[in-house]
């Protein structure tokens, strides 16, 4: 996947005061949803994220929302890159895109973080916890995001959305998925009135940390962000405590977390509750099962794009095929055995 560097350079010259051409765009290897490029120009480095080509699912790949929420969060306790420019004119490079600051740090791909000391590992998890709590304490209206989503009935709307998107990209029938969808529909918790900004994909490899210390420099990948229910984010991150640490999964299941300084799921949730001033999280089984189903739906979309020839990373996209039934079975286990 390449970008018309001449067209991009001309646009940036006209719309970004910090740009000095010419520009070179090199695609990062990772990522499934929105292709991401390193931009090198006479003024330094920056990062471009764009929509993928081809026919896209409704409301997916919302780079405009990513740009808006990160721009709004600049200056809050939530660490985000500085935003430079948003281009919604698809004629420039073929799809909408935005350009943001290049944050020079490290991305941690393995949640067990074997490359750091035990104290640093503990500190990294605590700083992730603190940033998530800080996000959920931001007043959306105060940062200009009062219309970023609809408050109330979040899980009802999300379940409908992801069921629709799963069915739109379904490539084979999985009875476990049917069971999970039915159970979720029948066990929706009553709306408790909680509402906040939510990230939607809050996990360790969507963050940039300092190279030499356990400091969180930036939270990335806000495509799924909205005004929603904060328990969706904390449950989604804790889902990774349960995912396998094998194959293309990067979870923490089977790892002696206590021995290496990673908090238990219960400890992580308790610290989050302490920071946000709540007593606990009821209906934990629902939130976990919902997050597992939503992940299965996201991966099903990745698989569908791969089969249609529109995936950002086609080879890796095809590898997710076996993960979808695993996630569905894990959700069934939560439903039948409890959290």
UniProtKB/TrEMBL annotation:
CDD domains, alphabetized: ACAD10_11_N-like
Q: Which Pfam families match?
A: APH
Could you tell me the keywords of this UniProt record?
A: Transferase
Task: Answer whether the UniProt record assigns the keyword Membrane to this protein.
Answer: no
This protein's superkingdom? Bacteria
Q: Which Gene3D superfamilies match?
A: 3.90.1200.10, Phosphorylase Kinase, domain 1
Signal sequence residues: none
Show the GO MF annotations. transferase activity
Q: What is the name listed in the Swiss-Prot or TrEMBL entry for this protein? A: Phosphotransferase family protein
């Amino acid at each position: 996947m390449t970008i018309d560097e001449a067209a991009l350079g001309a646009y940036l010259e006209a719309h970004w005061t910090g740009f000095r051409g010419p520009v070179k765009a090199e695609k990062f290897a990772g990522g499934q949803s929105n292709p991401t490029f390193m931009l090198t120009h006479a003024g330094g480095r920056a990062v471009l994220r764009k929509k993928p080509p081809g026919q896209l699912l409704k409301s997916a790949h919302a780079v405009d929302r990513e740009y808006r929420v990160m721009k709004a969060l600049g200056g809050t306790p939530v660490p985000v890159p500085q935003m430079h420019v948003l281009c919604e004119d698809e004629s420039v490079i073929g799809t909408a895109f935005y350009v943001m600051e290049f944050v020079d740090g490290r991305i941690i791909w393995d949640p067990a973080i074997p490359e750091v000391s035990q104290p640093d590992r503990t500190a990294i998890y605590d700083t992730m916890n603190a940033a998530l709590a800080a996000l959920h304490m931001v007043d959306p209206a105060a940062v200009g995001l009062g219309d970023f989503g609809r408050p109330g009935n979040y899980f009802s709307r999300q379940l409908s959305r992801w069921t629709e998107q799963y069915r739109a990209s379904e490539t084979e029938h999985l009875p476990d998925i049917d069971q999970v969808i039915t159970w979720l529909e029948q066990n929706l918790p009553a709306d408790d009135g909680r509402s906040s900004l939510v990230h939607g994909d809050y996990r360790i490899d969507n963050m940039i940390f300092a190279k030499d210390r356990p400091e969180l420099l930036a939270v990335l990948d806000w495509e799924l962000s909205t005004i929603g229910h904060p328990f969706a984010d904390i449950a989604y991150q804790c889902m990774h405590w349960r995912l396998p640490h094998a194959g293309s999964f990067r979870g923490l299941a089977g790892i002696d977390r206590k021995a290496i300084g990673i908090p238990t799921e219960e400890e992580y949730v308790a610290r989050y509750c302490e920071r946000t001033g709540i007593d606990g999280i009821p209906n934990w089984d629902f939130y976990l099962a919902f997050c597992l189903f939503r992940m299965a739906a996201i991966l099903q979309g990745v698989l569908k794009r791969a089969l249609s020839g529109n995936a950002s990373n086609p080879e890796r996209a095809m590898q997710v095929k076996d993960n979808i039934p695993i996630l569905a079975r894990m959700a069934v286990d939560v439903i039948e055995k409890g959290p």
